[in-house]
């Protein structure tokens, strides 16, 4: 049975793929970071308070002996990005350093801003329930110790008149809401210095958007020029493993196989991922123009999108402690503000779902954060096709069915050749049995006689391989799309299928697929090329395969169920034509079929 044999090969390939990804998950856990290097004695002018957070970048007041003798300046006279290092002081628990909190609610986001530093410390995506039928929304940013993940920003200056993420800001009110009909919402946080320097950190929220604008505006009311450097960073811990209620929930959890870590993009280096265990041994330290940096997890991400056409210094760090924190930072170019003048540094923060069709329009290469890996060449157009069919039907399950039908129409010629070849081989079974009796254990002569018979009867024994070569990448590509596409997260189909990205809770689709395999065996019970071992394996396949499918996303099982029905229909039609032609009655129009 060529179809069942193809399924066996697919099952073996898929099991190998899952074993490999699970091995990566189990044995590539984040390494314990080495303690941060102590600050050089040459950096004596660097601020050093007892409560200094190790995650705060600092400016070296004096150069190291082997370093450049002075901070370099650009053609305009503005100092370029300063040399930076991580302090060796022990960081406090993040939740212990809060100031008054400010809550901002839009139609898609609810964020909490800490007035200490103006950092975003909590986020809820209002359109995405944490669990099916749950009233709680997905939380990306969090200030809890076990799930700590925040977006921080600040300014650096050698004279100390600059607010970093520890500085205390003031907001006019403790909550802001985007009102009906209102397109944008501005939230200002203000910091002032005794020297007369004032900084206004303005967040701008837009209706329907997961992009938050950030403008750090400096009003220099002092008597001398102010020079500073803006920075933005994402900082998080590795959260504990999720707790599953049962065995099926654990092994059907697709987040186990998705990338979790930091990512960055640059026009020259393109898209790059950094696993947490690579932070300490292979730290990022690169100047990038027109790129972005992010922290990614299954379905969702946070990304700083710096100003385009301005070079930023991208770097990664491990903040030591009992629960290590992993940090990715961009340090912007320095700028100078004359006395009585005003200047600002702008950036954007994306905090939301990984919607591939929308991310590319937000920033170049941001859509690559939905990473399909080696199957991108097939998965990306398949995602586009699924999205287009969903636009027509409004149902992702129907979109999958339409994709199956389209693929079967495109592959009909290959499948028909496969079934005709299988039918001819089945017809030759008595002659094959006779050859086996004649040559006994002489496998070489048996093989030669078999190939001569195939040549004489114009049978191509590898005809069934061609559809399989197409089917395997389509199978893995669709599995990757279903696993990585947030659009299919909690997407219902019909009846009991409430989430196409999760396993069928009642195993209905796997059982239906078992029926399809049994029907396939009934149409094509045996082929002449099968030995006794292969025949036994094929008899057990209708039982083995539904067990595999019990852990697959129901959308993938739906794909294979519909695909199996299409293949059964094609097989029945081709066999009907073949039998009619073989009996001398001819197919449609009384014409005999051409040999495969």
From TrEMBL:
<dbReference type="InterPro" id="IPR028055">
    <property type="entry name" value="YidC/Oxa/ALB_C"/>
</dbReference>
<dbReference type="GO" id="GO:0032977">
    <property type="term" value="F:membrane insertase activity"/>
</dbReference>
<feature type="compositionally biased region" description="Low complexity">
    <location>
        <begin position="32"/>
        <end position="50"/>
    </location>
</feature>
<dbReference type="Pfam" id="PF02096">
    <property type="entry name" value="60KD_IMP"/>
</dbReference>
<keyword id="KW-0143">Chaperone</keyword>
<feature type="transmembrane region" description="Helical">
    <location>
        <begin position="540"/>
        <end position="562"/>
    </location>
</feature>
<comment type="similarity">
    <text>Belongs to the OXA1/ALB3/YidC family. Type 1 subfamily.</text>
</comment>
<dbReference type="InterPro" id="IPR047196">
    <property type="entry name" value="YidC_ALB_C"/>
</dbReference>
<keyword id="KW-0653">Protein transport</keyword>
<feature type="transmembrane region" description="Helical">
    <location>
        <begin position="461"/>
        <end position="482"/>
    </location>
</feature>
<dbReference type="InterPro" id="IPR001708">
    <property type="entry name" value="YidC/ALB3/OXA1/COX18"/>
</dbReference>
<keyword id="KW-1133">Transmembrane helix</keyword>
<dbReference type="InterPro" id="IPR028053">
    <property type="entry name" value="Membr_insert_YidC_N"/>
</dbReference>
<dbReference type="Pfam" id="PF14849">
    <property type="entry name" value="YidC_periplas"/>
</dbReference>
<feature type="compositionally biased region" description="Low complexity">
    <location>
        <begin position="61"/>
        <end position="82"/>
    </location>
</feature>
<comment type="function">
    <text>Required for the insertion and/or proper folding and/or complex formation of integral membrane proteins into the membrane. Involved in integration of membrane proteins that insert both dependently and independently of the Sec translocase complex, as well as at least some lipoproteins. Aids folding of multispanning membrane proteins.</text>
</comment>
<feature type="domain" description="Membrane insertase YidC N-terminal">
    <location>
        <begin position="102"/>
        <end position="384"/>
    </location>
</feature>
<protein>
    <recommendedName>
        <fullName>Membrane protein insertase YidC</fullName>
    </recommendedName>
</protein>
<feature type="transmembrane region" description="Helical">
    <location>
        <begin position="502"/>
        <end position="519"/>
    </location>
</feature>
<dbReference type="InterPro" id="IPR038221">
    <property type="entry name" value="YidC_periplasmic_sf"/>
</dbReference>
<dbReference type="InterPro" id="IPR019998">
    <property type="entry name" value="Membr_insert_YidC"/>
</dbReference>
<dbReference type="GO" id="GO:0005886">
    <property type="term" value="C:plasma membrane"/>
</dbReference>
<keyword id="KW-0472">Membrane</keyword>
<dbReference type="GO" id="GO:0051205">
    <property type="term" value="P:protein insertion into membrane"/>
</dbReference>
<comment type="subunit">
    <text>Interacts with the Sec translocase complex via SecD. Specifically interacts with transmembrane segments of nascent integral membrane proteins during membrane integration.</text>
</comment>
<dbReference type="GO" id="GO:0015031">
    <property type="term" value="P:protein transport"/>
</dbReference>
<feature type="transmembrane region" description="Helical">
    <location>
        <begin position="388"/>
        <end position="411"/>
    </location>
</feature>
<feature type="domain" description="Membrane insertase YidC/Oxa/ALB C-terminal">
    <location>
        <begin position="396"/>
        <end position="576"/>
    </location>
</feature>
<feature type="region of interest" description="Disordered">
    <location>
        <begin position="32"/>
        <end position="99"/>
    </location>
</feature>
<keyword id="KW-1003">Cell membrane</keyword>
<keyword id="KW-0812">Transmembrane</keyword>
<keyword id="KW-0813">Transport</keyword>
